[in-house]
Amino acid sequence: MEYTIKQTDKFRYIEEGEGEPLVLLHGLFGALSNFKDLIDHFSGHYKVVVPLLPLFELDLFHTTVGGLQKHVHKFIELKGYENIHLLGNSLGGHVALVHILKHPERIKSLTLTGSSGLFENGMGDSYPKRGDYEYIRKKTELTFFDPAMATKELVDEVYSITNNRLTVIKIIALAKSAIRNNLEEELNQIKQPTLLIWGQNDTITPPFVAQEFNKLIPNSELHFINNCGHAPMMEVPAEFNRILEEFLLKLKAPLAATV
Description:
Helices cover 41% and strands 17% of the residues. The protein is an alpha/beta fold.
């Protein structure tokens, strides 16, 4: 299904369905296509919202995890969402964490998948090489357990992003900001129910990262998915949606769970 990108003030976003808001934050090379199966599945029961993060549109000084969080906060305030189920993948998970720590009042639950914030190996020992298609193809393949998931269309999309000098500088700025902005000491402040869905074969934020999040976030539960890399909602959407749906249903019926 094709989705309409709406615009309110400077904010561009998708908003599908009705109900409690399920707000999805994409990663550094993320696109709306990353969440296609998730939007299709949940828009029948939730208001599914995907704000387009201005990864390469902020000035260099604000091209940080904190700068993206401010953008998300202003968007949520403008739209007036309440009882939000906030979900973030990779860098989007990091932004979600900073947001819930600074502005917990509107957030009902948090879901992280392949999130940075403690440790991430996104660039490995190198940064994007402008004009090197083969390098980009290999890096894109590393996102997945099954390298065939890195289709030519997806590689072309990432390549076009990294083929601009200023964009590459901003990618490096965001990657360095994510490494600097370690949240280990703050995670115990998160009070909302938190779901961790992790690829057992994630090489960018490996399984030990998920276990550390699970240990540090008080009210959290962890689910690993086998034969899955850094983007479970793309690689194994049916399993991802099943785990998320069960988690959200528990939050809808807290009284039934205690009887």
